[in-house]
Structure formats: C-alpha cells, structure tokens
Fold these 3 entries.
Entry 1:
Amino acid sequence: MGVSEHEKLTIKEFFDAISGVEGHYELVAGVAYAMADANEAHNVICSNVQTVFVPAGKHKGWRTTSSNTAVQTGPTTIRYPDVVVDSGPANAAAMTASRPTIIAEVSSPGTAVFDCGTKLREYQGVASVDTVMQIESGIALVKVHRRHKSGTWTEETIEEFDVAIPSRRWQRSSR
C-alpha cells in the first residue's frame, strides 16, 4: 500500500501506508501529508540536542529518539518531532512514543509559523508532554514552553546555550 495524500486514513492505515515508503509523512486530521526533507544544518542541530538529552535520559530509564518516533497528538493526527524524550515503558514494536515528555522541533523559515502555532498547540495538548522546545535553525534562538503543575504553560526564550535540561520532571533524581 502506498501513501495516498488527501485521502482520509485511520492511524493504522497511515502506519501501514508509510511502512517501507521513502520520504516523511505526517497524518493530520486523518490526511497524510508529505514533509520536506531536512538539510544538514537542521540535522546537526537535532544531533546536538540528542547528544545532550541521551545521557541524562538513559540515567532515568528514558529514551531519546529522532524524527522517526511518532507522537499521537489527536485521535487522527500523528506528528514526527525532530527529537522526542519518551519516559514511558519501552516497547520495541510501538509505532508511537508511549509517554512523550520532552519534544524538540527545529524550525526553518518556511515552517516556523506552523511549528509555533498549530504544532505547538497539539504538543501542549498531549497530557504527558511537559516541555516543548522550538529551535530556530537560522539564528541562535530557542523557545522553551513548560507545563507547570497547575497545567498552565510558560514560555522562555534562550539565546545562551549553557543551560540545564528544561523539563521539570528531568530534574527529579528518580523516576
């Protein structure tokens, strides 16, 4: 089965359709959309983020994964963030993160508005997500959105990169 853009799909049909297919797709309200390939600058930023998150996550039993880990943001919506920290139980056969906690999106000039609007709201709607990082690829700028215990979100802009891991749960000494 190939990927048929603009045809309504269930999540299972979507995963079946993209299995073995070249290119990246996301499912939005049941419709598959092709995503642009990343350039080297984008990939370097993603690699740097993973390099920071992997050791600390492993210590807690969490997994840090790349853009091939899906996050279900709605009943018929699947997104592929650039970096996902999954704090849930491991399942090698799973198609989605079991408990996404930190999400990092690296934006390009063409995706920044979309990433800062629709995608951000979707990620904030996932109960387990407590931190969303939006990284601008063209300039040294990171926006960190944090969920507080009250359920409210705050935004912090970071322009210096010698900072601690942003998730409040990450800071806890044990799981």
Entry 2:
Amino acid sequence: MRAALLVSIFLFPAVLRAQENLAGHWEGTVTLSEKTILIQVDFDRSDAGWNGTVLLPETTAPVYAAKSVVVESARVRIDLEMGFSSVSLDGQLSGDSIEGTFTRDNAKGKFKIKRTAGAKPSATEASKRPNSAPQPGRDESPTAGPSKRVGGGDSSRTSGPQVQAVAATAPRESRVARDDQGESRGVIPTATADTGDSDNGMPNFYAVMFASDNYDAKDWPHLNNPVDDAKSIARELHNFYGFHAEVYENQTYSAIKHILVDDYQKRDFKPNDELLIFFAGHGDFDPDDNRGYVITKDSSPPGSDRDREIDFPKLITWMDKINVGHILLVLDICQGGTIFEQERGNVPAPAIHETSAALQRLRGVKTRKCMTSGGKGAVKDGHAGQGSPFATTFIEVLGEAGPNTDDMVLNVDEVAGKIKKTMGRLADSTTPEFGSCATDKPTSDFFFFWQAPSK
C-alpha cells in the first residue's frame, strides 16, 4: 500500500502535466479486423473545455469535429458522429502517446496516437438558434401501409398538378382531422428555375415536394399530415436556406411523371445547383419483386396490379436523368428504406462549416443521395396537426443552424445523423436511413447554406 502511494505521488504531477500539454497534433493508426488505417487528432482547449478534430487522411471523408472530448486523470475519450454512425476513441494517456479502443457502432478495434508538432485548433461548440419547429409527439398507432378497412379516400379531388402557394409566415392550415390517431403513413411561392447566377454568387437551390393526404382507392386511407409536412419543410427551406420550393398536393402517377420527366429533366441548371425531391404519403413493398413503391393518388388498391405506382428503380432513373449536379431524395413513406435493397452505400463526407469550402466541394462531383424516414416497414403519420416524427425532426435539425453557431453550413451527413439521433430518443420510433442512390460519387455532398430571411 505504501509503495503504491509513493508511485501515485510521483506519477500524479506527470499526469497533470500531460493533460495540460494535450493540446497539439497527434498521429497514429487504427487497427481494425480487416485493415489498419491512419488517423490524426488535433486537440485544443477553450473556456468550455477540451475540443478535438479527427482526421482520417486515407478516406474520402477525412475531417470530423469531435462531439465531445473528456479528459479524466489519464483517460482520454473522444466521441464523434460520422453520418449515421457513432464513433468513440477511449484510451489511456501515457507521456506523449494515447492508446486504447476504437469503436464504430458495434465494431471495435485498437488505436494508438503519438504527439507531433503543430497544433491545429478546432472550433468550439456554440449555442444553437432556437428551434420553432413543432416537437414530435408520441403516436401510439403504427403506420403500416394500406389499411384493410375502408378509409377516407377522397375521389372528388382533381388529379392534375396543383402547386400550392403558401405565405412564408403562414401557420399550418386548419383541417378536418380524422377521428383515429394516425395509423397509416404509407408553398412557398411557385418558382420557375432560374438559369442565371443568384444575386449573392451562391448556387441556386430548388425543392419539389410531393405530398398526398387523400387517395382514390379507399383501401389507401386518408392521412393526417403529409401535405402540411411538405409545406412546413418547404417554408423552412425557403425562409432560412434560400430554396425555390414547389409543393404539389395529391398528384396522380402521370402528373408526377410529367413534373419530373417532362419539366425538371428539361430545365437548365448551373453546375453547383442543388435539388431536393421530397415524397410524403403512402408507400409499399412487394416481396415478390423485392421493390418498394411510392403510392400516388390514383394508384390501384393494395394487392392488385400495382398500376400507377412508382417503383423505386423507376424513381431513381427519373431522378438521375435530371441535369442538375446535386440531388437529395427524401422519402417520408412506409417502406422507404427498401430503396436501398438494390443499392447500398455511403461514404460520410467531412463536416464543412465554411461556405467557401462547401462550394469548392460541390464543383465537378455528381451527388445522388437518399434519406428515408424508416427502413423496411411502417413509419408513422402522427396525430393530425402535429406532423410526422420524421418531418418535425427534419425541421428541428434545420432550425439548429444560423448566426451565433458553428453551423452556418450543414452537409447532408450531419443532417441525417442528427435526425437519426433525435428520433432515437422518441418512444417507439422508426430508424431513418441514409445512403447513395443511382450514380452518386463517393466524394459527393449536398449542403444547406443558412441565409438570413428577407425582411
């Protein structure tokens, strides 16, 4: 006991000195079961505590700002998010080296880094812009696609393209709420694409939003929130991110095809322009052909010939042929995650918060990303007027950026990761999915550039 006490007396000052000297540049390796990769870590200290930046120089997405850096005695733990993955480095500090366990989701490995010269300061986390999005409430009823009972389909609706013009400050519209609890899930001023440069030198940003509450076939029951969700997301994109957003309500198969194929495929876009395509409403999956489907207003009843349903391979083809460099497809429908059944993969991009760096990354790289509100299964519609859990979380995450934060620029990996984390805290929530679609390139990206709303 006395010997141990003497050792601790001699070692304790050394540990304190090592902690005080943690700031700087560290390099080493991460050893996984299948390979060994290089890693670099930069530490710096602010009034709020330790900060860190992790670099994986051999990957296409090398730079990540640490979510937290905790130093307790000789223990150093770094936590960060890489897209939908949670990563930690938990090691022991000994002199000029840190050695320990590297964890990414359920996979584990070993890491060892040593101090070198040249500290690179990382940005500290600041307060977030207050979020005005409605918070997702608990919806006890699952939303598992078609109902077996007669629903509230409204066959009297017109089937042609209906672009809704919504005042930027308008609240959610009042509506007749259905008397259940949202079992099935299954605009901003109309804008013509501007082929010229934007006034501030930024790319042009576009969003085309398809949302269906009502369906001709009564076996596809009325939904509470898709149209209002699309309008709310469009409003956020328009007011704070400069998007030209169009919301199309309750569209038929031919109308959606006309908009994406006959209209958007023939528009002229600048090289850095971005397009967000959004679908909210019913979705389905056919195990016989291993395909997911978007259900349109005039789709056949479930279990029939799948007439006037948009299968995911066709939707990806329509999307891929639009002559714009950067596309994000967002699906808030049942079975949305089955869009990755044929294609899977995404290399997380670096967290970039500077506009100039983000614009540089967009140049010359084709982006085709997909984000879904769930995987293979049902997703929730939500109580009337409250929005779906995914839509309200999406708005909440977009609402975190702005002045007095580090997040004037959000890339899609960050948005997807934050959505997954937030929805993971909700009771009985689905798990969003994110990845590459069609001809997406490994180093591609999609950014949300915060812009002050016009007065």
Entry 3:
Amino acid sequence: MTKGPISIDTPLRYAGPPPKACDVVVLGGGVIGVMTAWFLAERGFSVTLCEKGRIAGEQSSRNWGWIRQQGRDLAELPIMMESLRLWAGLSQSLGPALGFRQDGVMYLARSQSEMAGFEVWMAQAQAMGLDVQLQSTAQVYDHLPDATPQWLGGLFTASDARAEPWAAVPLMAEGAVARGAVLVENCAVRRLDVQGGRVSGVYTEHGRIACDQVVVAGGAWSALFLAAEGVHIPQLSVLASVAQTVALPEVFAGNAADDRFAFRRRQDGSYTLAPGARHDFFLGPDAFRHFGAFLPVLKKDFKSTKFRAAAPKDYPDAWRTPRRWEGDMISPFERLRVLDPKPNLNALSEVQDNFALAFPHIGRPALQRTWAGMIDTIPDVVPVIDRVAAIPGLVIATGLCGHGFGIGPGMGRVVADLVADRPIGHDLHRFRLSRFRDGSRLVPGPTL
C-alpha cells in the first residue's frame, strides 16, 4: 500500500489492454469514476474505466480524508447521508485499511457572525434528519480540553467520519474489479466517437472502444475534454496544500477546522493539517472566460486566494495547453498523466504556527510529508450530474468542488443509476447542466 498520495511513480496495477467494446466507458479513476464503475458492474453492465495516469492519482488521494455531512449544500445533503451509510458498508467489506471511523466533524467559530451562519444551516439540516448540534464555548472545550481559549463556539455532527484517501480509493478499485469492472491505467480517452448524433464509442491512446454510453468523471480535466466535444461548463481548479505531521498526542479524535487551519487524526497517530480556507489559483484562459460566472464566489474568497500568473506547463488551463485535437492525435491527457502540484509551503508553515497556538502543550508540529492537489470548482460550488441532451449517451459527473471523497460512494451510485435509467432517489435539479445557459442565477452553496 502506498505511504503517500498516489503519483505517476506509483507502480502500475491495471495495465490493460482495454477491451474493444463494452456497454459503458467511464473516463477518470477518481472516487466518483471508481464507484460509478462499481455500481454499474453490480447492475450487470460491462464497464471499462479508463484512467490517463493512476487510479486515485489526483485529488482522490490528496484530500483531507473527511467524510462530512456537515456544511453541505442542502441539495447534496441527502446523497451525502446515503454515502455515509455506504461508507459504513464499505468498511465492513473492504476492511480496516479503509481507515473509516465516525468520530465527528467540528467547525470552530471565532465570531458571532460565524455562529449565526452555523445556526441557520443547522436548522435546515436538522429538518432533514441530520444529527448536527450547535456547540457553546464550554462544549467546544469539552471536545478540545487542551486547546487555548480562542473560539466562541462551534458546530458538531457526531456521525461524520474520516478515512485514509490514498488507501481507500485503491481498495474501492479492487472492489469494482471484483464485481466485473475493467480498469485500465495509462489509458487516456482522447475523444468521443459520435455517429448519427449519439455516442458510439471513444478513441483512446490504445485504440477505439465501442460503447453506448460514456461517463465523464475527469475531475480537473473534465471541462477541457468536454470543450473539445462542444460541451462547455464553467469549471476552474484551485491548488490546495496539505501536510502530514509526525505522530502526536491526541487533541481530538475527529476532524476539526476554523478559518485558519484544519486537522484530523490519522490511523498512525499523526495528523493531516491544511489551511482552513486558503488556496492558490493559477490564471489562465478559462479563468478570464468564466470570470463573470465566478465573481460571486470570488468575492467571498478573495482574501483567502493567492493568485498566480500562470499555470504550470500542460495543466488543464495553462496558456499553451491545446484546446482542439483529434482522436488519432496525442492529447493533453497524455502530456501530463497526473497533476502533482507543489504545495504552498508558506501556507503550511502558517498552519503549523496556528496549530502551535491552539495546542501549546504540543508546540509546532514537525511534518513528515507535504503535498498538494488541484480541486475542480464550479461557480455555485455544486457538481454537474446530468446527461448531455445534445449528445445522447454522454453523462457528466464532475465539479465536486472538494466534496468528492466523502460523497463518492453515494454519488457513484446516483451516476450509475442515471446511466442505467433506474430511479435515482434524489432530486438532481440543482446539478443540471442547463443551469449555465437557461438564465438561472448561480447561487453559491454554503461556504461553512
């Protein structure tokens, strides 16, 4: 099992070759793609998952490891509640290496305005059956008895959980294969093959695969792939930096965050640390193209965003990344197999300082590992989960906006049943593709 985020140096496990034909091709080997393949295989479909680099090589092994219902957009919350139940089942079937534990999520507030926001969201979530509770100052320090006084209160959901990202998604991939899915790494899908106005296959770097349906679950790469097919979504990516400490005394068994830093306990006694809200953003052609759509959320996050002049070479929104290519040409997805950005070490140093201020009995924690990932975002901070009416057979499942790891099992089930034309069980209206062109106002979800 890998000891850190998965990268292009991680040994190849699913070498292929891909089949010549199947029912469904899933593009992307993150948690959404893997769990979509899992459930499609369970439903009797022949499914091939094509990953340009490594399974879980990007954000699915680089996230915080939180499995949270707390703070979700209310349209996502029912799917997330289902997902938590699925995580519990996965823990039973895939074993302790998954790292699943339900020790809760705590949001910590430094201001009355934050507490007021918590209270509004809590009332709505409680009405939907969530076990979320507002926490007084005293209750916060019951959970964090060794912390210095700095928080007015908090929000706590005891049923929320955590898992180990770089172990969990590869284990899910093994489960998908056990159910009959075919996974192929180092296999970029270059273009769709559209015949008679509908999907008839895909062109990969290893040849054509005939299929009736394609699911685009390519994370930060989805918009680039879709634009080549004439399907445009306002999707950008931000860089999020993360670190793992050495083993430390326990200060809280679950996950916690305020506006300065976030932390969670790991299986080995270390902690995952990250900036609470800070991220880096590379300016590129799509950033200017979608500036208006992102303006509302940008206003909220402006102070926590570090702008950089240009994305590294071959990134999805780099200035020289090609926007058009054919199925027999080398595509951008082969030029850069895995997004492996350098973390913002200054931001992580501030996190170490803030952790030391909160827990002076431990002091400034030593780090054994740092990394970063690119989080794909949508202006209203909810995903696109929909069929593409203009290209029958094409389904989009992207833009999870940093929410993908926890909601992955539930969303995979939803996407699989969307493909299979089975009852979804949830209202997907907020996630529709048409919202970007039907005049709807894009209202950002909660930024708790």
